[in-house]
Amino acid sequence: MAFKKGFLWGGATAANQFEGAWDEDGKGPSVPDHIRGGTVDTPRLYDEVIDPEVYYPSHRAVDFYHHYKEDIALYGEMGFRCFRLSINWSRIYPTGMEETPNEKGLAFYHTVFAECAKYQIEPLVTISHYELPWGLSEKYNGWAGREVISHFMRYAETLFKEYKDEVRYWLTFNEINNGVQSSGRILSLGMKGIDHKPMFGIEETDEEKSDRFTALHHQFVASALAVKKGHEINPEFKIGMMTIGHPVYAYTCNPDDVKAMNDEMNLRMFFCADVQVRGHYPFFAKRFFEENNIHVRTLPEDEQILREGTVDFLSFSYYMSSASSADPNVTKAQGNMFAGVKNPYLKASEWGWQIDPKGLRILLNTLYARYEVPLMVVENGLGAVDERSEDGKFHDTYRIDYMRSHIEAMAEAVKDGVDLMGYTMWGCTDLVSASTGEMKKRYGLVYVDLDNDGNGDLHRERKDSFYWYQKVIKTNGEDLA
Ligand code: BG6
């Protein structure tokens, strides 16, 4: 058996892409509630003011808020042992700044955890998954303001105390390393965008770059404080970090390409993980900041906070890899939050993401060698267009093939000696895409009747991948046929 007993098989979601009910029961607006839908070639636009005439995909999403019983029952039927979900911060603290939490918001997640308990499903909670309360973005330019740390701590402490007997596994920030590049400004760091302009591709001045790395530093401090506080509240808690897992290969063996690869790996894969797992900035940070004219605003006590708040495990999303080259003219590939150079040895998804199961084994080995803490793959999957077949069903063999090859790669990594805790595939129930805001791009084992414009009755249907994954879980990953 490759996978250990109690391996956490399951699925993953994020509140802003899944829950809907964006203004119900006291919930305040969050940053993604201000972002329009797009497509693979039309960028998502950021609106300062929510326009009542515009369809914002997060507002209704796929309405988990009113379908949670049915959705969790389907996870129970598949045999999930783990369900990764995020808590919508502005459902608990509507502007992020209230002194007391919204009781209705707290009650909602109690009912969700009670449903999970019915099916012996362990919740894995992401405290902040691309959904900063809009109030904090407005007032402080998101995480660029140090004040957000104390607002976050009030929120995190509320969750730890409230759900102390219902939740054991926690993640502080989703894909924290998105903040090392400008595309992380809005979603990841909650910073202000430019009205009616795309949320990605923002050009930054040196000062804005310094603000961004300061915002990222504030997330590091907040995460470390939360880890410490969580352990005080319940020493049984396992609190992890979450990063984008995206290995980079040198495009050729030209040392210049290898150097480019090394720089990308350092910044993308190791910069944040070094801080959160080892408890200090990496050795290369000083030169990187100096050469890029980045000035991070820190306080003297921060070093100790980071040292004392290291995580229990390292989790990551894994969709693709890319190559790296010193030649600016080589062909580029599309990507998740990170893109890169096209790799001629790999095929890509319909959205241009390069499919690379071996890259998952390589990355698991690389991260385990460097950090020696348990690892968990908390997102993985294929975004694809699902068409109903003539028999009325969804035969998503392409999704099964994708997942099979990645689970095989994980099994190899475990045999290599990697300590792997679990696997929660992304978007177990179809949900809104984070990068494009589409419904057309689906990851689910369960289909949801909803299109890009919000048409559909939201009913759920099992795809072929549902039954396949049920068997995988039942055999603890032995039967992947
Ligand atoms: C990760 C995010 O980047 O990838 C998720 O944590 C996101 O929120 C997932 O949905 C897949 O990306 P996309 O853009 O296809 O939804």
Topology:
Elements: E1 8-12, H1 15-18, E2 45-46, H2 57-60, H3 64-78, E3 82-86, H4 89-92, H5 103-118, E4 122-128, H6 134-140, H7 147-162, E5 169-173, E6 197-198, H8 206-233, E7 238-245, E8 248-250, H9 255-278, H10 285-291, H11 302-308, E9 313-318, E10 322-324, E11 332-333, E12 340-341, H12 357-371, E13 375-379, H13 397-416, E14 420-426, E15 446-448, E16 460-462, H14 464-474
Parallel strand pairs: 1-3, 1-14, 3-4, 4-5, 5-7, 7-9, 8-10, 9-13, 13-14
Antiparallel strand pairs: 2-6, 11-12, 15-16
The protein binds 6-O-phosphono-beta-D-glucopyranose.
What's the quick description here?
With 481 residues, the protein is of the alpha/beta class.
Order of helices and strands: EHEHHEHHEHHEEHEEHHHEEEEHEHEEEH
Radius of gyration, in angstroms, nearest whole number: 21 Å
Largest pleated sheet: 8 strands, parallel, barrel
Which outline best applies? Answer: globular
Question: How many beta-strand elements?
Answer: 16
Spans of at least 5 consecutive residues with low confidence:
none
Strand content: 5-15%
Mean pLDDT: 97
User: What strand line-up does the widest sheet have?
Assistant: 1-3-4-5-7-9-13-14
Proportion of helical residues: 25-40%
Distance N to C terminus: 16 Å
Number of helices, where a helix is a run of at least 4 consecutive DSSP H or I residues:
14
Bound molecules: 6-O-phosphono-beta-D-glucopyranose
Structural class of the secondary elements?
alpha/beta
